[in-house]
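[Amino acid chain]
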Amino acid sequence: MEQVVDVGTQGTRALAAHTDWAATATGAADQWPAALLAAWDLALDSLVPTALLVGPRRVLLYNDAFAERLGTRHPAAFGCPAQEVLPELWSESHLGGLIDRVLTDGDPFLDADSRVGHLPVGAPETSGVPLLGHHLRTASAVRDGAGAVVAALHVVVETSSSHDRARAVAELATALGTAVTVDDVCKVVLREAVTAFGARTAGICLPSPGPGGWRIARRHRIEDLSPDEERLPLIWSEVPDDLAETVSWAVDEGEVHRSGSGELVVVPLEARAIRAAVVGFREATPLPPSLGTVLSAFTDLVAEALGRAVVYDAERSTAELLQRTLLPPNLPQSDAVSVAARYEPVSEGTVAGGDFYDSFFLPDGRLALVIGDVVGRGVMAATVMGQVRAAVRGAALANSRPEAVMGALDRVVWDLDALWPASLPLGTTRARPGMSFGGELFVTMLYATITPDTGVVEIASAGHPLPALLSGRASRDDGAPRGRLLSMPVGPPLGIAGARPATELVLEVGDMLVAYTDGLLERRGEDLVRGEERLLAVLADVPPSSPRRVAQVVMEAMVPRTGQEDDCAVLTVGRSPAGHRRCSVVVPPMPESVKAARDWARAQLTQWHVDDADQYTIVTGISELITNAVLHAGTESHLTMDLDSGQVSVTVADSGNRGEPLLTGGESMAVRGRGLSLVQAISDAFGSHRTSAGTTVWFEVAVTPAGTTSTLDLPAVGEPVR
């Protein structure tokens, strides 16, 4: 590359004054044609990036605005052949050919959207690659007195911000296509509004019963949420009075509010009688002209999606409330046996399902386990599910043998099948196809009893999928695989006469029984064998853990986030080793409860001989979870700690709705995601799920007894076997 300028000179006008033009391909400046001199003066005075490519060698001259676009290639590029300075214009795009045509044929061009240059992988943003981004480019010929083309005048206008806003609207439309709940829609809006508005922070406002009348959820431009945090419900706070007044005005008038400095934009949304607004908190810069078009498209898309979501939520919440209310809010636990369950409704749709599970102690001290599925979906299936679940308890208390329980339930199902059609008067407008079972009601169910002290299990299946057995360390040492389907006879579903013989096995310490409904395995276009193979692959990789963690891992690995076509439930039970400890406490919804919970946990961990470092980790996690429960649920929470196989498991269960507005002050920021991120980071396992009683969040930490340095020798808590 020719070097004809003093690279220490600042400013292109100064560069031009210090350039030895006679040493360049352009020749001495006093010999330039008048048109070229005029074009150069025009370029220097222009406020937009402007360049001249002079002569056959396309010598590059440019103004200060163009120099900024060149980045680190300026000032060395000044006065050098453009093909050497900007090779990507010719090698990586069509622009070089267009410029060549201007210089050879005099044909001008206008290129509305171009992107030139690509950062190498790992290269910093400040690298020398120029003109990154989207641009509008134009070039026209500069002719001398005889009409010959002596240069091309090239103007570049960056359109990256407008392009990004348009792309944000397109991405918004795509994302809203799969957002069905109000929470889903609001998350999509917040994510895309940051780009669409060029905002530091975006917020969405919905009506609130609070004094200001509005609640707001926010997302900050710098936030990078993990998938776990994205799945959590949004955090809402009350809108401060001054902003609430602005939001109310914008919604009432149906007009966009723009502050004079451009720092605040409030966009009203109204569809299907839904009142809402999107708020953008920006830098103090003028609003770009393209923002109006973006806001119009943004408003139409979001308002329609939000209107659909409100209707969907009303229907779905009723169905899901019915479903979860019919499931047990808590499962029994003991020092010898731990039980956990997870239920996930169908990901799309607003009907209740018939999946159910239960666990309860029998009078002789054994533990009964039940999981089943009523054929069909809807209110009828959910109602029958509740009746069958209640009937299981009654039958088991009378005679707990699996064959006896199954036989008693056959009669219950037959009676229910006959009851439903009779309950609909002939000719009523409510009687329509699908509202009665018409002799086709049947229920699949797995029923088992376990003796906690010995691990003896009696289990029978009425047409239900085979459970899996997850082997602990002792069983694997004897040659058992990590996970396998239990080999046992399967009888007909309840409601169809037939034998359902019981199978007996011994659940060793560290082993775990994993039962589930068929929704866990079924996929459209895939047979159940393939689903079983996927389940066994998941179990093969499950690390040593508790029933709660296994249920969480299985559910998250097996159930797709969207497109799930059937409800599914998972029930896990495992035997605990000697030395298993458990304690629990009820925490009131008061700020001072956080310190009290920390003190309680520290005292218990000290009694269990957990060392100080692990105590600090566990107490920090408890502090975050109790703080979340106090701030965002507003109800008392149940804190439970288990010490099992060198592992402390902590559970915090509340009965609040985390999607409801939070009266925490207008300027409060969303901290729950950060708090849960901290818990997830410091723990060995972490999870959360909703139950019929509220929300449960848990974490696990592998611990070392005080005075030791290894978790492999735990005299206070038993030999780790999982």
Remarks:
- The chain has four domains: 12-158, 162-320, 331-514+562-569, 581-702.
- The chain has a mean pLDDT of 77.
